[in-house]
Design goal:
Layout (H helix, E strand, L loop, with lengths): L1 E2 L5 H4 L4 H7 L3 E2 L20 H8 L14 H14 L3 E5 L2 H10 L7 E5 L4 H13 L3 E5 L4 H7 L4 E7 L11 H10 L3 E5 L17 E5 L1 H5 L7 E5 L1 H15 L5 H11 L2 H19 L5 E3 L9 H7 L7 E5 L3 H11 L4 E2 L9 E3 L11 H7 L5 E5 L5 H14 L3
Parallel strand pairs: 4-5, 4-6, 6-7, 7-8, 12-13
Antiparallel strand pairs: 1-2, 3-9, 8-9, 10-11, 11-14, 13-14
Helix pairs in contact: 2-4, 4-11, 5-6, 12-16, 14-16
Length: 403
């Protein structure tokens, strides 16, 4: 199998994002296939014993085992790194595998992690339950208040961990401020960028050290497979992340990697088009609900920051609150005809869910209240359907629920 010039980073680094999304990280076999090949293999054979010994010793390039390297998976890692502007990337079995690996690979008992209180339910579980179980101290703050980051720092603070925009309340973190603060204090920033993707926001341009993804979301974008990714410096990926991943095994299957490769080819077009539709739908919904959380709307408390950090679109996802609590929220969901009830996001289909009873159901009522995940909160992912059809469905669903 030979690599095309597409895997020569001295060549591909000058390519623009749209070209990288289609051509970056392309390896071709002797057959010269145009679409990336799918290598469904767990292991590899070798010409002689010395070759395999040299590969395992790190003295020679080449595949050893698909828990460590696989050609299809490696193509995806190169492409994501190129899109992100990162030196390296390792993909994971799911988004939560990526978040878990990004944290556990670098913290030990006695370390301290500062995390945003607004986060996906499973990410909060990592911070509230898993890390403390292994002796890692954690502090949860309001990530939208810059001063709380500085105030939370201790002598043993090792990591800042946050999402921006956050799930499901769309809190926006000032990337430049937080990343600069972290660098000045020797703290590693781990940013979950799943709501934006590298098509809309690249945290490393603001100084982030590690960017983690649920590639299940916008990167696949069509609700097909689970996948995750962790991007960082070559040193971080090789010396910090890889030993953890090699020995714990949260690896992505070659088939899922191939599917995400196909998704990346259209990522920018989808993310930008869905952002435009989400903004239009948000404007229609805003006058009819108690509160809307949409970073693209002037009513968002960090609207100016959001559009500065995401100049090509603020994403397909927003949330809104109905005044009648869970009963009225369920009434909206039950009246939907086009939009599906689903807890996925980043999909090409429009989807809506009730976070308090789905994505954040595993948290205590107190934690949900602290995060702003109320009983009346609904989260919507705007898809690629005709925006007029989405608007008509939401109009009739809101009307049916008395809004």
């Amino acid at each position: 199998m030979k690599k095309t010039s597409g895997t020569d980073r001295t060549v591909t680094r000058h390519w623009r994002p749209a070209t990288r999304a289609v051509r970056g990280g392309t390896w071709r076999s002797e057959h010269g296939e145009t679409s990336e090949a799918l290598f469904l293999t767990s292991g590899y054979t070798y010409d002689d014993a010395a070759t395999v010994a040299a590969r395992f010793a790190g003295e020679a390039d080449g595949m050893t085992y698909s828990r460590l390297q696989n050609p299809t998976v490696a193509m995806l890692e190169e492409r994501i790194a190129l899109l992100e502007g990162a030196e390296a990337c390792r993909v994971q079995a799911s988004g939560m595998a990526a978040m878990t690996a990004a944290l556990l690979c670098q913290v030990s008992a006695g370390d301290h992690v500062v995390a945003a209180r607004a986060a996906f339910g499973s990410c909060r579980w990592l911070v509230d339950h898993l890390l403390p179980r292994f002796g890692v101290e954690t502090t949860v703050i309001d990530s939208a208040v810059d001063g709380e980051w500085d105030a939370a720092i201790r002598p043993n603070t090792k990591v800042f961990f946050f999402e921006t925009p956050a799930n499901p309340t769309l809190d926006v973190v000032d990337l430049g401020y937080v990343c600069d603060l972290a660098k000045a204090r020797g703290i590693v920033t781990v940013v979950d960028n799943a709501f934006a993707s590298p098509a809309l926001q690249r945290p490393m341009e603001y100084g982030a050290d590690v960017v983690a993804y649920s590639a299940t979301k916008l990167m696949d974008g069509q609700g097909r497979v689970l996948a995750g990714a962790v991007c960082g410096s070559q040193q971080f990926v090789d010396d910090v992340l890889l030993p953890f991943q090699r020995n714990t095994g949260p690896n992505l299957s070659p088939f899922n990697a191939w599917v995400v490769l196909k998704g990346l080819e259209t990522l920018a077009m989808r993310a930008k088009a869905q952002s435009v539709s989400a903004l239009e739908i948000g404007k229609l919904v805003e006058p009819r609900v108690a509160r809307i959380l949409h970073p693209g709307l002037p009513s968002h408390p960090r609207h100016e920051l959001a559009v500065r950090q995401m100049p090509d679109g603020t994403g397909p996802i927003f949330a809104f609150e109905v005044p009648g609590g869970r009963e009225q929220a369920f009434a909206v969901l039950d009246a939907l005809q086009l939009v599906d009830i689903s807890n996925n996001i980043g999909d090409s289909r429009s989807l809506m869910c009730h976070p308090a009873s789905t994505t954040h159901a595993g948290l205590s009522a107190e934690a949900r209240t602290e995060m702003g995940v109320t009983e009346g909160l609904l989260r919507i992912n705007i898809g690629l359907e005709d925006v007029a059809d989405i608007a008509e469905d939401l109009d009739q669903a809101l009307s049916a629920a008395g809004l």
